[in-house]
Amino acid sequence: MKVMKFGGTSVGKPERMRQVSQLITKDTEPTIVVLSALSGTTNSLVEIGNSIASGDRDAARQQIEKLEAHYQAFIRDLVKSEKALAKAKAIVAEHFEFLTIILRISFSEALNKDILAQGELLSTKLFSVFLEENGIDHVLLPALEFMSIDSHDEPQVNSIKTRLGHLLQQHRDKTLFITQGYICRNARGEVDNLKRGGSDYSASLIAAAINASVCEIWTDIDGMHNNDPRVVKKTVPIEQLSFEEAAELAYFGAKILHPASIWPAQFYKVPVKLLNTMQPEAKGTLITEEAGSVGVKAIAAKDGIIAINIRSSRMLLAYGFLRKIFEVFEKYRTPIDMITTSEVAVSVTIDTAADLKAIVKELEPFGNVEVEDNHSIVSIVGNEIALTQDVLAKLFEALIPVPVRMVSYGGSRHNVSLLIPSSHKTQTLQLLNKGLFGLE
Ligand code: ADP
Ligand code: ASP
Ligand code: MG
């Protein structure tokens, strides 16, 4: 059995859905198809939620009407028969009625999650009507019945496996399953989600749960590129990556993959393929346990980073100092991405300001605390970077004009990370593209 995930652009137009239907019926291997919301929908739902949260119900109503008009036009183009159109219309009506009802209810975070879930529910149900009209036998599997996160917002593969296994058992004679990415239930049983871009994570979790032969992530580009194509003009696809390399690139900002989407596939040893829906014959990127060739493979950048510097003469020759500092971050469940230390100071980075005030307050007794926001981590990822001749020389030569704030090297054999002011990100990615890959 395999998993095929299609992102927003891959289902964002009626003709793309048609193309997806061809791709998923190409071979006979039983398949679970994971769909995102149509491109733009989740952004619109976020805006609707924000309008309701700020009490601007008129704006929310207008945003809902605009989105509904988009879906009305979409379905008229998607299906041909009156019968299928009536079904599709009923689905659109049901979900937009739900959004309109929400306008009258007082806002809560749980309600907001319900709003955000509408995109994947709509895309999968409409795709199912389209498949039915075209005589493609399939089963719609409700993700809310098997995809879940625990009280720490972590998905547990074993419980997903049990529930999904039960559902699949009920349809033993079927070979094509369609389900929603991104959405899940939380520990309180409410509708929740796996954070923005989470359909990749859904796909990898499902692939792990069913021990899939492959987890295919179909998107709008021909695989993982060596640099961020949104920032740098000339980038090239990478044919092969190890799980470690892919995980680091995803975690450190390569938007093509959700930051957590590699670990389930890695842990359960399911190969991941990144493929282009618009160019299915392109090789794409294969991600496996194999380390592949030595050297730098790609660069990624993660924004919204906050650097915290704790300076204290008490750190000199003291032990236990770092433990005390780490305990503060542990208490607030805030992961540290980078760390550098000197005899009298330690700098760490975090990517959320959620508990920043409380963290700083608790760090103050240990020394002088300084906070700098608006930074980016630029990660240079590859295999055995440390063994690659000249890489550090080339790296620092390329970066002469950039005010690098922190460097992390040696923690992993696959990564060198730099902390820079976000205002220098574009320049840094361009300089590294030239300096490390000879691409301009
Ligand atoms: P989907 O909707 O299919 O999930 P995303 O927009 O989430 O697609 O991810 C694909 C996009 O990721 C590409 O269009 C590209 O702009 C962006 N991207 C950022 N970094 C990279 C990279 N290193 N390689 C490929 N794509 C990247
Ligand atoms: N629709 C969700 C989002 O836009 C999930 C996804 O596309 O992966 O974030
Ligand atoms: Mg995505």
Structure description:
The chain has two domains: 2-220, 3-Layer(aba) Sandwich (Carbamate kinase); 297-437, VC0802-like (2-Layer Sandwich), CATH 3.30.2130. With 440 residues, it is an alpha/beta fold. Helices cover 39% and strands 21% of the residues. The chain binds adenosine-5'-diphosphate (ADP), aspartic acid (ASP) and magnesium ion (MG). Residues 7-10, 36, 197, 219-221, 224-225, 228-230, 254-256, 298, 300 line the site of adenosine-5'-diphosphate (ADP).
Work out the helicity level: 25-40%
What's the alpha carbon Rg, rounded to whole Å?
A: 23 Å
Kindly report how far apart the N and C termini lie. 42 Å
Mind telling me the CATH class of the largest domain?
Alpha Beta
Summarize the structure in short:
Helices cover 39% and strands 21% of the residues.
Descriptive key words:
440 residues; alpha/beta; Carbamate kinase; VC0802-like; eight-stranded mixed beta sheet; 16 strands; binds adenosine-5'-diphosphate; binds magnesium ion
List the helices and strands and how they pair.
Elements: E1 2-6, H1 14-24, E2 31-35, H2 41-53, H3 57-78, H4 82-102, H5 109-133, E3 139-141, H6 157-169, E4 176-180, E5 183-185, E6 191-193, H7 199-209, E7 215-219, E8 240-242, H8 243-251, H9 263-267, E9 272-276, E10 285-288, E11 295-311, H10 321-331, E12 339-341, E13 345-350, H11 356-363, E14 368-383, H12 391-398, E15 406-409, E16 415-421, H13 425-437
Parallel strand pairs: 1-2, 1-7, 2-4, 3-4, 7-9, 8-10
Antiparallel strand pairs: 5-6, 9-10, 11-13, 11-14, 12-13, 14-16, 15-16
Bound molecules: adenosine-5'-diphosphate, aspartic acid (ASP) and magnesium ion.
Residues 7, 197, 200 line the site of magnesium ion.
